[in-house]
Design brief:
Structural class: alpha/beta
Number of helices: 29
Largest sheet: 7 strands, antiparallel
Radius of gyration: 31 Å
Strand content: 15-25%
Bound molecules: zinc ion
Length: about 700
């Protein structure tokens, strides 16, 4: 397929890269669409040319134009190569360097640009440079031919980068570029650390971020004139920006290698996010529009899509969704920030920052998601909820989308509702044998209340669904009341709650009871009316499954009393409570055995656990260096028997109840977790982290 060129992207975005005289003057920050303030209209500081001003108007009827404004002045200046592979800032200087002949630059600068002139794919027109590369041995004929081939296929790339990929040595190539462009070439000695020949103070004055963003390495002061290493010769704007930032009349630019810049900046500021030229083009080129198929497209939507920027944005959004599915994420967070947009995925319960879309695309990404979620794209001041039905790699997915206006635009969160993740067999939930047997007894009882408890995201719904699926749907009438219905269950009547119109849990439950039910699953018991109705249902011969928000099993009993149930009703109706959490599993690729410390041994012995061997995840690519991949449940099951009923009637406090349960041999959440550390499923740290609140 055709590789996307940055100019193509800009064209798609309605920014004309060829327009002369636009580069230096740009509108200030993107007008916040829902906060018409001084920023939204040209103020005294506003020095944009008329055509730029025109584009800043965020007309609701023309979302694309409003959407594609450059977002920050600093990112629009200077020759910038993006450092993060997933970030690409199409800035003017880059455009100028590749396109605009009027731009003041050295003849060699122009010659260099002609090498990566996108309009002439593969044309290595600068014979002076190629001759020198060959004669100096910096590149072989074969490497040059290979580079030519690659540049023909993927336009807009730099010869240097392609040659280095082909095996040429960056320093040698860069030296040739320096010679041809009449600049000096210098290398630093990274082995000497901070003494390696670069200027840490100047880096600080320019800011590390700026240096990283523009691949700039200050080398030293020469009198009043700082010597600054850059990685490309066509740097007119960059030089202006550096002078401005340092407050000096002149700087001397020399060429250095990208390797040296990255190495030195890492010495100063720690690891840079990533290296190389793996930019948005590469991301986009690997994603087809059809990779993620959105269902239900109407004519009008297609038009809106065109307005929202077409290919690059659609592909980028597809890429986000694809990656999320590939990484097994449960949620996608897309957050506009001051300068950058952030995309984070929740994987195994934790948020990871995954990518930073190009700022120029930010608004369009939000618009695109709103379009496919059937939301009103012109409404930016109110939160909205929608749904996207799509197929990724042949897998049908539902995404529940919600938007929320925030400081820098709209934050979008997409919950990935993957039927596969909820389709877990009861046997695969991680119950130990004893718990499994007791649990099966509870869910197969003819009547009574069975509760699953734990915080949000602890897998309660999965447990309930898995349990319901084991019941005989042919001979029983099984119904649910949910808020919201996230997954469809075969053979089960599911009812959606609507609090706004008075369809609350209690009312739905009362209606269900007139429908001759056998088993009822109630999304949650959170008020007295629902609790009372649930007890009535249980005491009149129905099995009621529901959830509560409590930390552990014993406190569910006292919670029901606190909600307003008489203790004797709780004792009579409740058959059992299952408390649960999800623990991250150690990554199967990188987990290794580890000798426990003396303290740890002591701790484990105190908990009555074997202490000779533990496991840990070293971290690898597969687990994003977290050492964990996938999750497993831990459980604490309280079965209410006659002795416990007698006790509950006396309305004990939580501590008493807990003590009694412990005496009777109930496995606590923590104990169940520690058992799972012995078999190498998870780590002690993880167990302690997750069960902290349960103790
Ligand atoms: Zn791993």
């Amino acid at each position: 397929m055709k590789k996307l060129d940055i100019d193509d992207i800009l064209n798609e975005l309605g920014i004309d890269p060829n327009k002369p005289g636009e580069a230096p003057a740009r509108p200030r920050a993107r007008p916040t669409p829902f906060l018409p303030g001084p920023d939204a209209t040209p103020g005294p500081n506003f020095s944009a040319p008329p055509d730029a001003t025109r584009r800043t108007k965020p007309g609701p009827g023309n979302p694309a134009q409003g959407a594609f404004l450059p977002s920050s002045p600093s990112s629009q200046r200077g020759v910038g190569r993006s450092i993060t592979p997933r970030t690409y800032e199409p800035d003017e200087a880059e455009i100028v360097s590749t396109r605009s002949p009027e731009q003041p630059s050295s003849p060699i600068g122009e010659a260099m640009t002609s090498i990566h002139q996108p309009d002439q794919p593969g044309a290595l027109t600068n014979s002076e440079l190629t001759d020198l590369l060959l004669s100096s041995g910096a590149a072989t004929q074969q490497q040059l031919a290979g580079a030519q081939q690659i540049m023909r296929q993927s336009q807009g790339r730099r010869l240097l980068d392609v040659l280095v990929e082909q095996g040429a040595i960056e320093a040698k190539v860069q030296e040739c570029v320096a010679t041809v462009s009449g600049m000096g070439f210098e290398a630093v000695d990274l082995g000497k650390g901070l003494e390696g020949g670069f200027d840490g103070k100047l880096i600080q004055r320019l800011t590390l971020e700026f240096c990283q963003q523009h691949m700039v390495l200050p080398l030293r002061q020469e009198g009043l004139r700082p010597v600054i290493g850059v990685t490309r010769p066509d740097t007119a704007f960059l030089s202006d920006e550096i002078r401005r930032r340092l407050g000096v009349p002149a700087v001397r630019l020399v060429l250095v290698t990208g390797f040296d810049v990255r190495g030195a900046l890492e010495i100063v500021g720690g690891p840079m996010k990533s290296q190389g030229e793996d930019d948005v083009n590469d991301i986009l080129s690997s994603v087809q529009e059809t990779d993620v198929q959105v269902e239900k497209k109407s004519e009008s939507e297609v038009d809106l899509e065109r307005a929202a920027g077409e290919n690059p944005v659609i592909r980028y959004v597809n890429y986000i969704i694809q990656q999320a599915v590939k990484e097994g994420a449960s949620d996608i967070h897309i957050e506009p920030g001051d300068k950058k947009m952030k995309v984070r995925f929740r994987i195994d319960g934790e948020l990871y920052e995954m990518m930073q879309p190009p700022p120029a695309m930010s608004a369009a990404i939000t618009s695109r998601i709103k379009i496919i979620a059937n939301l009103d794209i012109s409404e930016r001041r109110l939160p909205q909820d929608g749904r996207i039905r799509c197929a990724v790699a042949g897998r049908k997915l539902d995404l529940r989308v919600s938007t929320l206006p925030c400081g820098y635009g709209e934050k979008v969160v997409m919950r990935i509702l993957d039927t596969r993740s909820i389709n877990v067999k009861l046997e695969d939930l991680g119950f130990d044998e004893n718990t499994m047997q007791l649990w099966r007894g509870l869910i197969n009882a003819p009547h009574g209340i069975v509760l699953v408890t734990g915080p949000t995201g602890s897998g309660k719904t999965t447990t309930l669904y898995s349990s319901l699926r084991t019941l005989d749907k042919t001979s029983m009438n099984i119904s649910t009341v949910e808020d919201p219905i996230e997954y469809h269950l075969d053979g089960i009547t599911q009812t959606q709650m609507h609090d706004k119109i008075g369809m609350n849990f209690a009312r739905a439950l009362k209606a269900l009871l007139r429908q001759d039910p056998d088993v009822i699953m109630l999304g949650e018991i959170r008020d007295q009316e629902t609790a009372v109705t649930a007890v009535q249902a249980a005491l009149t011969g129905h099995l009621v499954l529901s959830t509560l928000h409590t930390n552990d099993a014993p406190s569910s009993i006292t919670r029901l009393v606190n909600i307003g149930l008489e203790p004797f009703l709780v004792a009579a109706a409740v058959n059992g409570v299952l408390a649960q959490r999800l623990l991250r599993k150690l990554c199967s690729v990188c987990k290794v055995e580890k000798e426990p410390s003396e303290e740890m041994k002591e701790f484990l012995l105190m908990q009555g656990m074997p202490s000779d061997k533990l496991w840990t995840g070293k971290g690898c690519d597969k687990c994003r260096n977290s050492g964990y991949s996938g999750r497993v449940g831990i459980y604490e099951l309280l079965v209410v028997d006659d002795q416990l009923r007698d006790f509950i009637v006396r309305s004990p406090n939580v501590a008493e109840l807990r003590r009694l349960c412990a005496e009777r041999g109930m496995t606590t959440l923590r104990a169940d977790g520690l058992k799972k550390t012995a078999s190498g499923k998870t780590s002690v740290e993880e167990v302690l982290r997750v069960t902290e609140s349960a103790m």
